[in-house]
Amino acid sequence: MPLDQNQLMEMYRKMVTIRAFIRRAHAESQAGNIPVAVAANVGEEGSAVGVCAALRTEDRITSTHRSLGHAIAKGMDVRTIMAELFGRSGGCCQGKGGAMHIADFSVGMLGANGIVGGGLPIATGAALAAQLEENDNVAVAFFGDGASNEGTFHSSLNLASIWKLPIIFVCENNGWGLAVPASYALSVQDVSVRAISYDIPGVTVDGTDAIGVYEVMEQAVARARSGGGPTLIECKNYRWDTNSDTKEVDVRGGLNDPVRSMSARLMDDGVAPEAMQQVEREVEALVADAVAFALASPFPNPEDALIGVFAT
Q1: Among 212, 176, 196, which Cα is nearest to 47's?
Q2: 260-267 contacts: CB < 8 A, separation 24 or more?
Q3: Closest C-alpha to 213, from 270, 241, 255
Q4: What is the 3-state secondary structure (H, E, C) of the chain?
Q5: What is the pTM of this model?
Q6: Domains defined for the chain, CATH in brackets
Q7: pLDDT truncated to tens, each residue of the chain (312 aa)?
């Protein structure tokens, strides 16, 4: 169904939050306050928010090592995410997961994954669980173009197709795997055509258009909830702010800035510029509060390393 203005504003807020959060986290990492590098993905806010806007809290997602946008889009608390990056006990994983292993089961975020393609079979398992539980929840596996060459991609799509699992596979194709262009590493121009091999729908969408992503995702979710099985969605993105100095950042292939595109859309719909500026101020305060929360949270105790390791 069409999105109303309130829903579009909420999408815009999340997109602005993702960008502001990632940039602040990257700055804190550069300053030495975060003990690990932050895998930034500025420019990919549209696909994260567009996908998650079509989901319910009970729906489950898995993410990649570039997980911050997905985590925020799915509804995680930015304070606990920031504390996790800082390695503090107030983090969503008590400071033990770090930037590449963020999770919050309460909002359906099953976790980021430092292994390329590692989230695909986990999401497939979540979809199988939903099917066995006989509810209409769905699962989503976010992954990059590089992961579409991994065995986990092919085995997950094959199994999901055979069992008609309620899952949507979302490939965020930014055209690069560090310094290797996707045009060299992929046998096809569009990852979505690989859906043919598994007899499921495949569609490519402009990932910088959050509304366009939502519309495609809404159809895929409806199909999955009704028992129609999986869909492969490829979002063409361009990650134009990155930690890597080996990747070109001056050519975006004609893709737009997703945040600016959404802002322009809202203003065309009559939203006053002052309202947009208010969102930006609120987000700036939200991210500053997240940093303050992280700094105020203590480091985990050494003995905490043994907590959560064994089932009881």
Answers
A1: 212
A2: 261/46, 261/208, 261/209, 261/210, 262/8, 262/11, 262/12, 262/15, 262/46, 262/210, 262/211, 263/12, 265/8, 265/211, 266/5, 266/8, 266/9, 266/12
A3: 255
A4: CCCCHHHHHHHHHHHHHHHHHHHHHHHHHHCCCCCCCCCCCECCHHHHHHHHCCCCCCCEEECCCCCHHHHHHCCCCHHHHHHHHCCCCCCCCCCCCCCCCCCEHHHCECCCCCCCCCHHHHHHHHHHHHHHCCCCCCEEEEEECHHHHCHHHHHHHHHHHHHCCCEEEEEEECCEECCEEHHHHCCCCCHHHHHHHHCCCEEEEECCCHHHHHHHHHHHHHHHHCCCCCEEEEEECCCCECCCCCCCCCCCCCCCCHHHHHHHHHHHCCCCHHHHHHHHHHHHHHHHHHHHHHHHCCCCCHHHHHCCCCCC
A5: 0.93
A6: 5-296 (3.40.50.970)
A7: 789 999 999 999 999 999 999 999 999 999 999 988 888 889 999 999 999 999 999 999 999 999 999 999 999 999 999 999 999 999 999 999 888 899 999 999 999 999 999 999 999 999 999 999 999 999 999 999 999 999 999 999 999 999 999 999 999 998 877 778 788 888 898 999 999 999 999 999 999 999 999 999 999 999 999 999 999 999 999 877 544 433 444 445 556 899 999 999 999 999 999 999 999 999 999 999 999 999 999 999 998 888 888 877
- Residue matched to tokens 């960008």: 19
